[in-house]
Write a structure and sequence with these properties.
By secondary structure, the chain is of the alpha/beta class. The protein has a domain at 22-128: HUPs (Rossmann fold, 3-Layer(aba) Sandwich). Helix content is 40%, strand content 16%. It has 8 helices and 6 strands, in the order βαβααβααβααβαβ. The chain has helices spanning 34-46, 59-65, 73-87, 97-101, 107-117, 128-135, 140-144, 160-164, and strands at residues 22-27, 51-56, 92-94, 122-126, 148-151, 169-171. Helix 8 (160-164) links the parallel strand 5 (148-151) and strand 6. The chain is globular and about 65 Å long. The N and C termini lie far apart (47 Å).
Length: 174
């Protein structure tokens, strides 16, 4: 093998590749406050994510996942766009794929879309209720091997699968 000699200035350090991966905030954003959105943006910066993607869930999807009433998709998306415009941050994006579909989208389809279109590694930022709901799906074990969860706060009640895969998720409060 042939060696090449390189000279560098005194004190030179290799540039550190800081930003990697995507933090995906998967939520209905029905009751999400600006402070919670700001927390997600701060976590994305502090953990050196390349991008924060807000993924609002369509009302048909939420009706199947939860029995709670939910406002129309376009209203929740507009609120997220207003919040993003106020922050003027380029590393924040809103994924409108589910709004274009205008129907129920299983979490498997949503995660497949997100993981195929965004930079890896993928971290899914969810509320404790959504994490427990996600863990109840049969495909959870397949997905938890490909992604990591970042839960807004430590769940009071853990689904058995969340307990089993404790090493694959963190609490944002840590």
């Amino acid at each position: 093998m042939h060696r090449t000699v390189q000279s560098v200035p005194y004190g030179y350090e290799l540039p550190v590749e800081r930003e990697k991966g995507t933090l995906i905030y998967y939520d209905s954003f029905e009751r999400t406050t600006d402070e919670e959105l700001d927390l997600a943006a701060e976590i994305a910066v502090s953990r050196s994510f390349e991008k924060l993607v807000l993924y609002p869930i369509h009302e048909e999807t939420m009706r199947r996942m939860s029995k709670e009433p939910i406002s129309p998709y376009y209203k929740r998306e507009k609120r997220l766009q207003d919040w993003k415009r106020e922050r003027q941050r380029d590393e924040i994006a809103i994924d409108g794929w589910e709004g274009k579909r205008k129907k129920y989208t299983p979490i498997d389809s949503a995660l497949r879309h997100l993981t195929e279109s965004l930079a890896a590694p993928h971290f899914i930022f969810v509320a404790p209720e959504m994490a427990n709901l996600f863990a109840s799906f049969s495909s959870f074990e397949d997905w938890i091997a490909k992604i990591r969860l970042l839960i807004t706060e430590e769940p009071k009640v853990l689904h058995p699968r969340l307990e089993q895969y404790r090493s694959r998720w963190d609490s944002a409060g840590d």
